[in-house]
Design brief:
mainly alpha; Arc Repressor Mutant, subunit A; Rossmann fold; three-stranded mixed sheet; 14 strands; flat; HTH_77; BTAD domain-containing putative transcriptional regulator; OmpR/PhoB-type_DNA-bd; BTAD; DNA-binding
Length: 1007
């Protein structure tokens, strides 16, 4: 159990523990103020009642308060009763972790710390425990007030200690800012005033340091008639003389930061940790990622750890042969040159403990590597921090790739550099984020872009990034030439490359969102691509990471890709590389398509998902080149994966683009299949116009090429798309055609798919035996094929069958299996549907809370993927639960939002349910006229589908709205007969409606 007194009184066991009653809290505060010491009962009574009249039996009342405190602590944590013990002559808090004790322990450790950095770190931790004034709220309790004053004195002493430690580390700017508030609060503390004056002086604020002394002297004379002590007076004189002893001894040539380092707090901690573990740490990364700034900042934090200093050697101006390397390092370190340069340098540094920062090593890695290797071997106290676009390749080298800034940190940097007139707000945040993403989070590119904000604004700036190399010019005049424009940054890495490496690099630019090694070899080939890729990765021009499918992927930052596209055009190689690209991805899509119906389904879905951007780029390029056959084959190969992943909008748009672009004399078999895909996906996406006519036209297109198997597939797919919508007999006919065609072709997957659809149709019309027979057969076939999507469809029907029979545990098990398979495959629209199905089972079982949770999760997933069918299913489930718990307004709100949609998509089963529920709501409100109208329309919709459960529900609702008891009774009787003949008993969740209606009829006189 933990107690907090460095601020308002706090008790925690992991969660905050409430201590009721002011007297009990005061008792606890007094015991904590005497940590581990017995407090006499008399002292406790005085503290608890102070000047107020004590109770008639103070000892007994105190004992009662102690019991309350014990119960509170015991309830919060088992065994806590032993914390408050009775010991003559009173009580003691014998155990527990108190933050004041931790604070004092840290202060003691800081006093014994070996160096200023350790001391400052421990004091930071100690002072971080304070949440406000000690024992806040108990200022009127005498013994607590004494302890609070003692702790406050320790706190101020710790503030002074920390300030002196930071001053020793050269952090005078930070100390000057932090101490201002403390000095204002305690103006007569001379030690505090002295360290603040030193910090002000070292920060170049001599006048403020002198004014601070004058202020103290005036206060002492006015209030106490005293003068400042001799130490402070001597400091005042030293400041007046500008005594050199007040200055920090120079131990580094690191440049002072002109701007704050933004967004790199985590990276800075990581670099410092790695540097503490390694004698050679090389920060690698692409140009403009901020390697130099991060290295300088990290080195500046550790100056005090190196008695012989931290020294920066800037190598960008060095010739590629590195002939002047040793003289350059020697000059920075103030050493005489030697006839044997590296040996002489190593000898001169032999006994030194220092950090050498070697910046921009990429063009001289060989000479730098050789020098560093010798120095590390012969100078044991030396550490090296290097920055380079490629590793030095030295034994013992540890690499740390500097990552680009993630969007939130990139936005922070962009805003900081855009100038004081710019502020992030709701109107520009989206554009700023887009700029940061498109510039890959590279700090240099962001800073160059930020300089254009005043002239262009962020919206226009974002729009012009396609021409980024002209746009991002004119960096700071003081910056090296290679950092003044974005093009120069990339030129610095590109120019030293041999031509074969340049060729692979520029060809990589046709890939969208990276590529696999296989793709790089096929598209960028003409030699050993792997070795060239490895060199480009080493030079930070290509980024290598593991893709979601587990394969390594190679990608270019967007700015590098834009640069390489220009170079590809200059080489006259763009169109040829684009052709290679779209032919490779067509081959990949056609290899993947049949595997999406096998046990390899998950792997190939993941691979296609990873390659989505490349597939879109390939389709764009094929259409642009007029390669209509390639475009048709590509959309035909991809449509099944789009459908499985619920990306109906993308599929529909791609198919429409291709069908609108291909010539009339294109391959008729390819055209027929693409039109079938388009028609089915449009129907799945909610387009209900002329379903039957479109179906006939699509199927007729297969007659010309004589593609019997294609016709069978199209019949099944269109039946699948129309299931639950339109004429059930028409859908049955399509499934029959598909089954016969698949059987004739020996297509096991097709037979399983047709059986699955046939089972779902049988379930809808109430033929439970047929649904079970076809469903089980389809499940066996899909299981043998390893197609979990197919199993998912069959378990859906078998789960609904179990629901209809009232076997809710079995139904939940089927739907839970389906949910697991959908999640494993990443089929998130199917996940939404399975969550909705589990919600229906919970609803039927009477668990409205669980039903709501499942339906809300389903609705959220469906909305994220713009899947209206799944969203409809989930929100109707929320309406069902709301109506059953009596929240009629909430239920009606959900239902009314879907009436027009159900009518628009010819959704008779869905429409029947929505109208039935609206009718029940009207009836419960006493509006029998509206209820009758709604139930009559719902009954007509239900009969049109032939779904017995929908008909029974509509008849039950109608019975509740009819005035004539005899007619209502006949309606209930018919509903019961339909449920009995279908083997679908009345669910308990719906029995309340029937019982309510039956009860009303029993009390209504016959006409």
């Amino acid at each position: 159990m933990r107690f907090g007194v460095l601020g308002p009184l706090e008790v925690r066991t992991g969660e905050r523990v409430a201590v009721p009653d002011r007297k009990v809290r005061t008792l606890l505060a007094v015991l904590l103020a005497h940590r581990g010491r017995v407090v006499a009962s008399g002292r406790l009574i005085d503290d608890l009642w102070g000047g107020a009249p004590a109770p008639s039996r103070p000892a007994a009342t105190l004992q009662a308060r102690v019991s309350q405190l014990r119960r509170t602590l015991e309830d919060a944590e088992a065994g806590a009763r032993a914390l408050v013990e009775s010991r003559p002559p009173g009580y003691v808090l014998a155990a527990g972790d108190v933050d004041a004790g931790v604070f004092e322990e840290l202060v003691e450790r800081a006093a014994a710390a070996p160096d200023p950095r350790s001391k400052a770190g421990l004091l930071d931790e100690a002072l971080g425990l304070w949440r406000g004034e000690a024992f806040a709220g108990f200022e009127d309790v005498e013994s607590v007030r004494v302890e609070a004053a003692r702790l406050e004195e320790l706190r101020l002493a710790a503030v002074e200690e920390r300030a002196e430690a930071r001053l020793a580390l050269g952090e005078h700017h930070r100390v000057a800012g932090e101490l201002a508030e403390h000095v204002a609060g305690h103006p007569l503390r001379e030690r505090l005033r002295a360290v603040h004056m030193r910090a002000l002086y070292r920060a170049g604020r001599q006048d403020e340091a002198l004014r601070s002394y004058a202020e103290l002297r005036g206060l002492l004379r006015d209030e106490l008639g005293l003068d400042p002590g001799p130490g402070l007076a001597a400091l005042h004189q030293a400041i007046l003389r500008q005594d050199p002893s007040l200055d920090v001894r120079p131990r580094t040539n690191l440049p002072a930061a002109v701007t704050e380092l933004v967004g790199r707090a985590d990276a800075l901690r990581e670099v410092r940790a790695r540097l503490a573990e390694s004698r050679l740490l090389t920060l690698v990364g692409p140009g403009g990622v901020g390697k130099t700034r991060l290295a300088v900042e990290a080195a500046g934090k550790v100056v005090e750890e190196y008695p012989d200093g931290v020294w920066l050697v800037e190598l960008a101006a060095l010739d590629p042969a590195g002939t002047a390397l040793v003289p350059m390092v020697s000059a920075v370190l103030g050493l005489r040159d030697d006839d044997r340069p590296s040996a002489g340098l190593a000898g001169a540094l032999r006994d030194r403990r220092m950090l050498l920062v070697l910046d921009n090593c990429e063009h001289v890695v060989e000479p730098v590597g050789a020098l560093v290797s010798e120095l590390l071997r012969r100078v044991p106290g030396l550490r090296v921090l290097a920055t380079s676009r490629q590793p030095l390749g030295v034994y013992g080298e540890r690499l740390w790739p500097v990552p680009p800034l993630e969007v939130p940190r990139a936005v922070e940097l962009f805003v900081a550099r855009a100038g004081p007139g710019f502020a992030l707000d709701a109107g520009n945040a989206e554009w700023v984020a887009a700029i940061c993403r498109r510039l890959d989070g590279l700090p240099l590119a962001l800073e160059l872009a930020a300089t254009r904000v005043r002239a262009l604004g962020v919206r226009e700036l974002a729009a012009r990034l396609d021409d980024r190399f002209r746009l991002l010019e004119g960096g700071p005049r003081g910056a090296p030439r290679r950092q003044r424009t974005l093009r120069a940054v990339i030129d610095w890495s590109h120019e030293p490359l041999p031509e074969p490496d340049r060729r692979v690099l520029r060809r990589l630019a046709v890939h969208a969102d990276g590529c696999t090694l296989e793709a790089a070899e096929r598209v960028c080939g003409d030699g050993d691509v792997l070795d060239r890729l490895a060199r480009l990765v080493d030079r930070s021009l290509v980024v290598m990471a593991e893709g979601a499918d587990g394969l390594p992927r190679y990608r270019l930052l967007e700015s590098v890709a834009a640069y390489c596209v220009e170079r590809l055009d200059e080489a006259g190689d763009h169109e040829r590389t684009r052709r290679r690209h779209y032919r490779y991805y067509l081959d990949l899509a056609e290899r993947a398509e049949p595997r999406l119906r096998t046990g390899d389904q998950r792997e190939w879905l993941a691979r296609l998902n990873t390659e989505s951007a490349n597939m879109r780029a390939a389709l764009d390029a094929a259409l642009h080149a007029g390669a209509s056959e390639v475009a048709l084959r590509l959309v035909n190969a991809l449509s099944w994966s789009w459908m499985l992943r619920g990306r109906l909008g993308e599929a529909r748009r791609a198919l429409e683009r291709v069908l609108g672009a291909v010539p009339p004399d294109a391959d008729p078999a390819l055209l027929a299949r693409a039109r079938a895909w388009h028609a089915g996906i449009a129907m799945l996406d909610g387009d209900s116009a002329g379903r039957a006519d479109r179906t006939r036209a699509v199927l007729a297109a297969f007659d010309g090429p004589g593609d019997g198997h294609g016709r069978a597939w199209a019949s099944w797919f269109l039946a699948f798309a129309r299931r639950g919508f339109g004429d059930p007999a028409d859908i049955d006919d399509l499934i029959g055609l598909a089954f016969d065609g698949f059987t004739a072709a020996g297509d096991e997957w097709g037979v399983a798919a047709a059986l699955s659809s046939r089972a779902a149709q049988a379930m809808a019309r109430g033929d439970l035996a047929a649904a079970e027979r076809d469903g089980e057969h389809g499940a066996v076939l899909f299981r043998d094929l390893g197609d979990r999507w197919g199993l998912l469809q069959v378990t859906e029907t078998l789960g609904v069958l179990a629901e209809a029979r009232g076997d809710y545990p079995r139904a939940a098990a089927y739907h839970q299996d389906g949910l697991r398979m959908a999640e494993e495959l990443g089929l998130w629209t199917e996940v939404a549907y399975k969550l909705g199905r589990l919600g229906r089972v919970a609803l039927l079982d009477g668990d409205h809370g669980r039903a709501d949770d499942l339906h809300r999760r389903a609705a959220r997933l469906a909305r994220e993927r713009s899947h209206r069918r799944m969203e409809n299913f989930a929100e109707v489930g929320l309406a069902l639960a709301a109506r059953r718990r009596g929240d009629l307004d909430e239920a009606e709100g959900y239902l009314l939002a879907w009436v027009d949609w159900c009518r628009g998509v010819d959704g008779s089963p869905g429409l029947a349910l929505v109208l039935a529920e609206l009718g029940f709501i009207a009836e419960l409100r006493g509006d029998r006229e509206s209820a009758l109208r709604l139930h009559q329309e719902g009954l007509a919709a239900a009969r049109a589908t032939g779904n017995p459960r929908a008909v029974a529900l509509a008849l039950e609702g109608l019975a509740g709205a009819l005035d004539d008891p005899a007619e209502a009774a006949r309606s209930l009787e018919e509903a019961g007969a339909i449920r009995a003949s279908a083997g679908a008993p009345l669910p308990p969740a719906e029995r309340a409606d029937v019982d309510r209606i039956a009860a009303r009829l029993a009390t209504t006189p016959a006409r």
